[in-house]
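User: Let's play a game. I give you a shape written as tokens, and you guess the letters that built it. Ready? Here's round one.
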């Protein structure tokens, strides 16, 4: 909030996009929408038509009764029950066949018989690669060994000759001779060690080559298992474990199915209990709401009408087990019937206004906006609607868009909305009216805004009477 306790909402519109602000801080459209739902209740012409829908009638009863907590519990219980039903359905759809059991056992045995370890991924690949290239590798190693160890001019023999020369150098230049001799000794030792390592490595390659057939068979098996069950040994072993678990579940299939059925029945019992509690609350509040709406309707031109809220049992759903119906008898001697069967648009508009009036007793929304709530009515009834809107405005802001002078006269402040063309573009103008302008505008709405007209005098009387 601002320092003055104000909440300033603005929207900046450009050719590229629009931005929303609350007290100069940018917010998303979703945040603004959620805030608006708390601050403003907009009632338009189409909302009247929604009143004939039983789902909307149920929502209004719940809202007036402040039953949001009970509704959330029913919704959560319904979703839990449906989740369990889906699990049961999926479980039963996978009812095991003898073929499936045999196939799972075959896969598990095939993997287990291979006796794989996760190290086999790299080890078998390396061993097979070496064994399959053994001839080429041994040829290269033999060449290297000959160069290092051949009696006739091997590298080690030649370096040994050079070493003897460096030892002779020590007699003339001890420091340089010792330095060179030390380096040559190290090099010769490393080459001798290298020769030993190469010989051992050659023997390993020869051993792998000797068992190549066995290695090839095992490597071929690994490749087949990779194609069937996964790219790595870890994947293959995981598949075997999955088969083991599924077989375990199949062995206890009947027991698990029975457990799932019991879970569904228990969840349904919980749902039914919560739905019954919600139903009782709805009935209790409906009994309180109907008389209040009847009182409002008497003020709106229905002195002898009867409004009832009828609850009947419905199929259990996410909304509970109630079918809520707003029933209305506009005249004495007529049985109350559902709004969608008998009510005219003018009657529905007034019933909705009565509902909104009752709803305002429990709603904290500070602003109500009515867009042509007085459609399809006029005369005395329009005046009564205006008085009801004025009463509704006690303690909150009511903004009403109307074409009825009898309704507008009840407002404390009047705005005139008009359209005009400027630079070949249509613009809308909103103007706050002074007292004299209010009289002229009401007279215009009544049909004649000349000061000598009866409409002008009637407009003055309306404002005087309301004041």
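Assistant: Ready! My guess for every position:
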């Amino acid at each position: 909030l601002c320092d003055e306790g104000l909440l300033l909402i603005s929207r900046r519109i450009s050719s590229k996009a629009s931005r929303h602000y609350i007290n100069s801080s940018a917010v998303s459209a979703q945040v603004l929408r959620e805030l608006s739902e708390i601050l403003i209740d907009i009632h338009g012409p189409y909302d009247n038509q929604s009143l004939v829908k039983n789902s909307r009638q149920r929502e209004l009863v719940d809202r007036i009764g402040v039953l949001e907590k009970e509704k959330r519990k029913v919704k959560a219980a319904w979703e839990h029950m449906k989740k369990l039903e889906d699990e049961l359905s999926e479980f039963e759809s996978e009812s095991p066949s003898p073929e499936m059991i045999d196939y799972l056992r075959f896969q598990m045995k095939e993997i287990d018989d291979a006796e794989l370890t996760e190290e086999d991924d790299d080890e078998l690949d390396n061993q097979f690669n070496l064994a399959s290239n053994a001839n080429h590798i041994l040829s290269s190693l033999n060449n290297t060994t000959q160069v290092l160890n051949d009696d006739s001019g091997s590298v080690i023999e030649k370096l040994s000759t050079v070493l003897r020369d460096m030892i002779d150098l020590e007699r003339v230049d001890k420091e340089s001779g010792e330095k060179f001799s030390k380096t040559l000794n190290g090099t010769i030792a490393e080459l001798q060690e290298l020769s030993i390592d190469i010989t051992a490595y050659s023997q390993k390659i020869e051993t792998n080559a000797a068992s190549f057939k066995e290695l090839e068979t095992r490597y071929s098996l690994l490749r087949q298992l990779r194609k069937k069950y996964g790219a790595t040994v870890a994947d293959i072993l995981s598949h075997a474990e999955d088969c083991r678990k599924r077989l375990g579940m199949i062995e206890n299939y009947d027991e698990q199915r029975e457990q799932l059925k019991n879970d569904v029945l228990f969840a349904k019992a919980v749902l039914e209990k919560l739905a019954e509690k919600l139903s009782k609350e709805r009935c209790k509040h409906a009994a309180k709401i109907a008389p209040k709406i009847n009182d409002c309707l008497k003020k709106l031109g229905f002195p002898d009408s009867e409004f009832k809220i009828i609850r009947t049992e419905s199929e259990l759903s996410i909304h509970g087990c109630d079918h809520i119906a707003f029933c209305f008898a506009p005249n004495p001697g007529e049985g109350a019937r559902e709004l969608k069967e008998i009510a005219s648009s003018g009657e529905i508009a007034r019933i909705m206004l009565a509902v909104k009036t009752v709803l305002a007793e429990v709603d904290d929304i500070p602003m109500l906006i009515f867009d042509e709530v007085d459609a399809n009515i006029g005369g005395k009834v329009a005046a009564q609607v205006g008085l009801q809107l004025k009463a509704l405005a006690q303690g909150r802001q009511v903004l009403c868009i109307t074409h009825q002078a009898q309704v507008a006269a009840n407002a404390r402040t009047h705005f005139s909305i008009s359209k005009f063309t400027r630079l070949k573009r249509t613009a809308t103008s909103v103007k706050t009216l002074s007292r004299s302008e209010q009289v002229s505008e009401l007279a215009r709405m009544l049909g004649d805004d000349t000061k000598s007209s009866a409409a002008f005098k009637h407009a003055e009387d309306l404002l005087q009477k309301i004041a």
